[in-house]
Write a structure and sequence with these properties.
single chain; mainly alpha; Growth Hormone, Chain: A; 25 helices; globular; transmembrane
């Protein structure tokens, strides 16, 4: 690519290539070499304006469809957990282990997502993730044993894990001027997929003759559809990379402005995420703990909430609908909350509001699980919207796409690792206490530290700025 000569600063000869090599793949490096052979206009997305517009539509559709597929593997299982337990001969403790598999897989596989994205591009990795989800969901209902069921679930969850981490990266990189809107759209799709699977899995299973295996396997079809819009994005990898390259090199950014190139100072490298030591950031740790505590609540809800309502005397279909209500609250709020968050310097008030809703919802579930079931479902649904808030804060607490990739991988992997004991502990407490009183009290108690660390994570600033001060 040609260098732009109208910027206010000039990058050092060594630093600019190093910066670009850090964030682009070998294929992109080859493209830069070819472009340097002649002076021409700076990098733009591939093809004509019509092609670029078409690719942009594919990206939006791909993000929404991918988001729709990131939770049905979990909530469809929660709706049929009793049937799966009977079919595979699971104890309560083993079922608790099953509900702990999602965060375990997210922690193990999510940490590899940035490296895979640097090698193959984030679009290709997300596309492969959708294929992995489809295969896992198609295989697991028919294996006939608990260990293989867990392995097939892990295959699907591997695809979910890498997509979880890369979605904020894709939004920040491909839509830098619409982070709040695109995060909201992605979060809405995620909430819609979660609630849809919770609501329709039981009636769909009944319509399929009561076969829980078919009721679970049918969700593989949605993942197959989600593969399609990512295919043209893989063939046009420059679509995502060209905008980021232009912003780094001080060339027109497509919005009537330009970005200055970075220098090679330590502060500049921190600003762009190059050499960022994410584990030294207090904000990163606070965000990871916040992510882990909200994930604990989310996976306990998805894995156990229908069973809590069923044990209280609610029918299986109504329990599924109550879970769907909890998750459906995320559809409108997942769009509203990120837009509110990006307009605030400090997201602490939103964190506190969501936490108080969770405390009231768990208290109601403890004292009157049936009488106020719909109210508690609504309140817990509001509380569960800590997830889109956490995603938004990932984008806001880092100043570059490389910084977002590191922060997203760290916060999600460490957070999901922290959340692993929660669903398992809930299953053990339920089995040994003979009721849901202790598990519900545990979940209410965890809301307090979630509020506290969320307030820390919501303070204005970036992890790059923290690193530069050290």
């Amino acid at each position: 690519m040609a260098h732009h000569h109208t910027t206010s600063r000039t990058a050092t000869p060594a630093s600019a290539p190093a910066m670009r090599a850090h964030e682009q793949s070998p294929d992109d490096s080859a493209a830069r070499g070819a472009a340097a052979d002649s002076e021409r206009t700076p990098a733009t997305p591939p093809g004509s304006p019509a092609t670029r517009a078409w690719l942009m539509r594919c990206a939006v559709i791909g993000i929404v469809l991918a988001a729709l597929n990131l939770r049905p593997a979990i909530t469809s299982l929660g709706a049929l957990l009793e049937e799966v337990r009977d079919g595979l001969g699971m104890s309560g403790s083993v079922a608790g282990l099953l509900t702990s598999v999602p965060p375990l897989c997210f922690a193990l596989f999510g940490v590899a997502a940035p490296r895979l994205a640097r090698r193959w591009g984030p679009g290709a990795v997300v596309c492969a993730g959708m294929v992995s989800i489809a295969l896992g969901l198609a295989i697991r209902p028919f294996v006939g044993s608990t260990p293989v069921f867990l392995a097939a679930s892990a295959l699907a969850l591997m695809g979910i894990a890498v997509s979880n981490v890369l979605m904020p990266v894709i939004v920040k990189r491909w839509f830098p001027d619409r982070v709040g809107t695109m995060t909201g759209l992605y979060s809405m799709g995620l909430a819609a997929g979660t609630s849809l699977a919770a609501a329709v899995t039981v009636p769909m299973t009944d319509a399929l003759g009561g076969d829980w295996q078919l009721g679970l396997a049918v969700w593989a079809l949605l993942a197959v559809v989600a593969v399609l819009p990512w295919l043209p994005l893989i063939r046009n990898r420059g679509f995502g990379d060209a905008t980021a390259t232009a912003r780094r090199k001080g060339v027109p950014d497509g919005k009537g402005g330009t970005e200055e190139p970075a220098d090679d100072s330590p502060a500049s490298r921190a600003d762009t995420g190059d050499g960022l030591r994410i584990t030294r950031s207090r904000t990163a740790w606070a965000l990871a703990v916040f992510f882990g505590l909200q994930a604990t609540g989310a996976y306990v809800t998805m894995g156990w909430m229908p069973q809590i309502f069923r044990d209280a005397g609610v029918s299986a279909s109504t329990a599924g609908v109550l879970l769907a209500v909890i998750m459906a609250m995320g559809v409108p709020l997942a769009f509203v909350i990120p837009r509110l968050a990006v307009g605030m310097r400090n997201q602490g008030p939103i964190v506190g509001t969501l936490g108080v809703c969770g405390l009231i919802g768990y208290a109601g579930l403890y004292f009157a699980p049936v009488g106020g079931a719909w109210v508690w479902a609504l309140l817990l649904g509001v509380s569960n919207c800590a997830f889109p808030l956490a995603l938004t804060m990932v984008g806001m607490r880092a100043g570059s796409s490389a910084g977002v990739a590191k922060l997203s991988a760290f916060a999600q992997s460490a957070g999901y690792l922290l959340s692993i004991p929660g669903p398992l502990l809930v299953g053990v407490l339920y089995q040994h206490s003979g009721g849901w009183g202790l598990p519900i009290a545990l979940m209410a108690g965890l809301m307090v530290p979630q509020i506290l660390v969320g307030i820390v994570a919501g303070r204005e600033g970036t992890v790059e700025a923290e690193a530069a001060r050290r």
